[in-house]
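To: structure subgroup
Subject: Chain for Friday's discussion

All,

I'm putting the inputs and outputs inline so they're searchable in the archive.
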Amino acid sequence: MDAQRERLPGLIRSDFRQTAASTGIDAPSPRVMDALAEVPRHLFVQKAFQDNAYANAPLPIGHGQTISQPFIVALMTELLALQPADRVLEIGTGCGYQSAILSLLCRQVYSVEILPELAKTAANRLESLGYENVSVRQADGYYGWQDEAPFDAILVAATADDIPDPLLQQLAPGGRMVIPVREPGLGEVLKCVRKHADGSVEVSDTIGVRFVPLTGER
């Protein structure tokens, strides 16, 4: 595990270089890499997969869900361009790994998970590991977390058929959102959304990805 953990930063940087033409980012920032180095990924995966916890690959976490590939975690975090005072909404808590990364880069993380078992487990894990600036709520992520809006940044860790209007409404002017969206004929595309000060929205495509679907009543 230790050797794998030592190799991981180089693999992530290599992926950034290879995808730079699509993402506009040729290298991850030191802040993001420091956060990935600090968070113990092996404590967020099932024991059966801990030997591969630092592989640059997604891993199952139960309930048909996965912990994202470290490169994708780094890329989505980088695209948000987080500042220390930011308030961030995360849709899809999963095991809480992405939540922990975000918590080291912003003021507060509000994370929504639709599956009760995952929401409870992630909340308990994050609390036990000392991530005090993460709040977890069990709810349908499509509708965000209206009571805590607006948010400076929103990260959606599940593929949607469109960009949910409730999330756009909860994004503060000047805010950023990263979200995988299913495009006919193209598959799943990671999109970067920017909301300008006048309320207008700019959407740009980055790379093809694979996520679990965004589920809920809608």
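Points worth raising on Friday:
The chain has one domain: 2-208.
Residues 84 and 105 are 6 Å apart (CA to CA).

D.
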